[in-house]
Amino acid sequence: MALLPRKKRFKGVPAPIVPRVPLAGSSQVGEEIKFHEVGIFLVERRMGSSRRRFLSELARRKGFWVEELMSESVTHVVSENNTGNEVLEWLEKQNGLCRNGFTATLLDITWFTESMGAGRPLEVENRHQLQVEGAVAVTEELISPYACQRRTSLMNKNRLLTEALKVLAENAEFSESEGRYLAFSRASSILKSLPHTVTKVEDLQRIPSLGVHSRKVIKEILEDGSCSEVESILHNERYQTLKQFTSIFGVGVKTADKWYREGLRTLDQLRASDIKLTRKQEAGLMHHSDLGAQVTRAEADLIKQIVERAVHIFLPHAVVTLAGGFRRGKDFGHDVDLLITHPEEGKEEGIIYQVIKWMASKDLILYHNFTGSSYKAKSMDPEIFDHFEKCLSIFRLKTELLFERDLRRYAKHLKKMSLCSHSLFDSEQNIFLQATTEEEIFAHLGLEYIPPHERNA
Questions:
Q1: Is-above-0.90 flag for pTM?
Q2: How far is CA 223 from CA 205, 217, 230, in A?
């Protein structure tokens, strides 16, 4: 059925609010309608019937009017993961809609979720509206809510804002609030992609994926230079402790929170405690200082060359690709991701185990956790990234060994001390010197501390 154009009203005369009366058998019977001026229709396409039903019931409980069928009384058409043209085409098929005379506003799900959070229908902003090709062109370039449709360079022009949102995301993760974690992370991600610096609230007008909370934080930073909520989190003992503990290789949020509740606050307290650590956590705590240091691009390239040389011993035609942040052009990173492939499918099976075993014999691997392939058939589970074999390891870069060798030689000949991977022994005093960090080792030896990225001897 085609929708008829609404009658024009004289300017200056307010439109009358006609109370909506639920029809018999409607799921809205018995629900109090607070906002009579808004009629919502949720598009089932890509949303699914069960999610649409859940969102409809949520809105009704909050006093919103939700139409089950598209009709002339609908003022707000809400969809998820659709373009304006896709929504109109779907409405034409499902409801016999004629575009001529169509007056409802086409909206992204963000308007709906933000309105639910506010407990009232929010004013529609440009960023909420779905654009229709062939309609009047907008002067500003639209920004996609999907990262795969945005170009994000390493030049972040909104670092002050993104770092604040990152703190909020981390704090949400520490509270195991996945929804808030994703909301702040997506907001930070989209700000990173902007080719300009946000200097005023109006600059956020057409930016998607910015919820009410994120906008409030951004507004405060733009006006005051900082956000009181973010500052409070940064000085919060639990946040500081969990951030420190989760920086240990092999320690997740649940474990870090458990240690915090048991009264631990520092790495030294953890080392002195009788808490039983996993093999992975032991390695992470032992090498915490080194693992916390950034990896340079030169070091990543060298590691790739070493691994590639080892791979070709067992599989000559395999291809080793530097992946992760370094593939995206970063000069520094926290780890090195390598992908091993082969032109013939299946030839790569078992190669990681052989390579790790060989490198361990060469004293290149300090820790490794190998996971075999679980690939049997193609999986449609989006939560499973892949089924291929993989290995998480701590790699000892040999270029540092010359530096370490001279460090031990210096300790022996000039300080009468014996330095090994586990201890520092003072031969003259006949005692082991206490040290929990590299900085303390250098101090015992009377040396200025040299960070790992300056040890390319």
A1: no
A2: 16, 10, 15
